[in-house]
Amino acid sequence: MRKLKERKDKLNRSVITSVVLHLLLVALVIWGSFVTKSGLTGGGEGGQVIDAIMVDPNAMVENFNQQQQQQANAKQAQAQREKKEKQQEEELRQKEAREQERLKAIEEERLKTEQKVDDQKKEAEEQQKQAQDALKKAKEEQKIAEAAAAKAQAEKENLIKEQALAKKKSDEKAAAQQAAEEEKAKAEKAAQEKAAKAEATKAEAAKAEAAKAEKAAKEKAAKEKAAKAAAKKQANEVDDLLGGLASNAPGTESGGASAAGQGGGKKSGTNSDGDMNGYIAQVRLAIQAKFYNADMYRGKTCTLEINITDKGTLISVNAVGGDDGLCQAALAAAKQARIPAPPSKSVWQQFKNTKLDFKPE
């Protein structure tokens, strides 16, 4: 806008200058037409020559018309220039208006961009703050985690130390226990050898006792048999003396048979008791032969209920009273023992459900 005004002022000055120059030129031409220069030539000495200038009115008119035409052309050119300038000014105004709109749009866009940048900056600051808070929180959590890890590591090291100490104690205890077991095994072996020898001695004694009891029983049976034969012979002699009356008397034979039966029953019962006692002694020795920890149960008793076949095969054995530890060991020994067969059916009938008191020796 300023440039356009400067150009317009410059153009006005040029037009004014041109008009003034043309007016001066016309004035000079008019003034020259009134001036007549004449030159006179004298014949004598000291004469002067006068130059004269003549002005052609037609030429002046033509020159004036040219000037007028020039002025008209200048005015027309000035009008065209002014019209063009106005047109340029309008175009420039419109251009400036468009430029203002563009600048306004640019400014609005700039403001929007600045607002957007501010928003982004605020958002970035908020995100940075959140990131700093998160980093701070992460550092605190890391610190807590490191403390927990250090505590866990210390606890782990303490646990390892405790386990190592426990293992050492366990190894020492195991070594001591192994040594004790070895000593115990040696002692048990010695005790077993001693018990085996004692059992062998007892078995021999029981065998001798059983043989002695059997011999006494046989002798007793022979005596009873001889007594029965003598009684029968005496009865026969009485019968012969009475002429067969005694044999025909009612109840005599049956009474004699009854008396003999009673005597026989009594004597047979005595023999059976001896066999029973001898067999019980053999069963005790058989169980004692498989019992290896007698010293641990000295003075203790266990009552065993034993059921066997007539061949001596163990059907069942149960503890019905006594020390629990001894009963467990006695049951194991009884199940492994080789129980001898009963000497007779009557002994088996009496023994097959017998309760036996077992005392380790």
Automatic annotation (TrEMBL):
Name this protein carries in UniProt: Protein TolA
Highest rank taxon of the organism: Bacteria
Transmembrane segment boundaries: 12-34
Record-level Gene Ontology MF annotations: toxin transmembrane transporter activity
Biased composition (Low complexity): 68-79
Cross-referenced SUPFAM superfamilies: TolA/TonB C-terminal domain
Pfam families associated with the record: TolA
Disordered: annotated segments: 68-140, 163-272
Compositional bias segments (type: Basic and acidic residues): 80-140, 163-174, 181-227
Gene Ontology terms: biological process: bacteriocin transport
CC per GO annotation: membrane
Keyword Glycosyltransferase: no
InterPro entries registered for this protein in UniProt: Tol-Pal_TolA
Organism: Morganella psychrotolerans
Keywords: Membrane, Transmembrane, Transmembrane helix
Keyword Transmembrane helix: yes
